[in-house]
Amino acid sequence: MIAVTDLTSFMYCPRKLYFRKVLKIKEDIQELPVKGIIKHKVYELVVRKDREIIASLTEKESLEDFEMKFRRNYYQTILLVLRMYKKNLKELELKGLEVYQEIWPFFLDEAKARSKEIYDFAKENNIYGEALWMKLPKGLPEIRVSSEALGMRGIVDQVNVDEGFIPIEIKTGKAPKDGVWKEHKIQVGAYMMLLSEHYGTEIKEGYVEYRMANEKRKVVMNEFLREDILDLIERVNELLKSDSKPERVKVEWKCENCGIREKCYSAE
Questions:
Q1: How many CB atoms lie within 10 A of CB 259?
Q2: Which architecture, in CATH terms, is 2-17+138-250?
Q3: Pairwise CA distance, residues 55 & 145, whole Å
Q4: What is the separation, in whole angstroms, between the first and last Cα of the chain?
Q5: Which residue has the higher pLDDT, 137 or 17?
Q6: What is the 3-state secondary structure (H, E, C) of the chain?
Q7: What is d(CA 104, CA 110) in angstroms, rounded to the nearest whole number?
């Protein structure tokens, strides 16, 4: 059974996917991917205290005090994740303090925006404490789904259960000028197909949340997207069963930060 991320890996570089999955070549740690993983892990873990923080809001509490709770949670979570990836950072000769200083402004803006959104919602609806937590739209984090029929599995960043099991994929990188990147569209579309089967209901839309742009962009399921995904599943399965290595990609920037570049270029 292939992973949803195998589809996007194939789109990015079939040769790299072949080296990792078929030849079992371990990828060297690279600076940019590790920083992206750290940011994504912070997002994954920071929600664990959401209920405690949101339910603590009272009518008399100021926005500044409420924001400080979110800031403190982000700060503590970043330190935790940096400890989790301490070995990786050391291998790259990166200092935890320097990585913290680089990503903290990003999460500080996130804490400000999130606390204000919830605070304003509470004021507008005159609702606080546990009732506020119960009223807010919620998403289930890190949902694992699989399908024997599709031969595919995946982990969805977030599923909005209040609006009909809508998948939301969180991205910490740069957003395109309009819409979503092709790989992200395929990824969210694949999650829609998996969740549709899992919950027994047709899911027609999903979202990519570009945190740097502070935008959530819609992906709509249609027959063209479905056919693209099914075609990719078939092509990935063919690749993983093949005895021949794919050709190297012709886009040089894809190779610059690749963790198997040396092994790839030294192979036939």
A1: 18
A2: Alpha-Beta Complex (3.90)
A3: 30
A4: 28
A5: 17
A6: CEEHHHHHHHHHCHHHHHHHHCCCCCCCCCHHHHHHHHHHHHHHHHHHHHHHHHHCCCCCCCHHHHHHHHHHHHHHHHHHHHHHCHHHHHHCCCCHHHHHHHHHHHHHHHHHHHHHHHHHHHHHHCCCHHHHHHHCCCEEEEEEEEECCCCEEEEEEEEECCCCCEEEEEECCCCCCCCCCHHHHHHHHHHHHHHHHHHCCCCCEEEEEECCCCEEEEEECCHHHHHHHHHHHHHHHHHHHCCCCCCCCCCHHHHHCCCCHHHHHHCC
A7: 10
d(CA 55, CA 83): 29
Single out the residue of 3, 15, 23 nearest to residue 265, CA to CA.
15
Token look-up 């990188």 returns: 173
Tell me the residue type at 133: W
Q: Where in the chain is the domain with CATH 3.90.320.10?
A: 2-17+138-250
61-112 pLDDT, tens per residue? 999 999 999 999 999 999 999 999 999 999 889 999 999 999 999 999 989 9
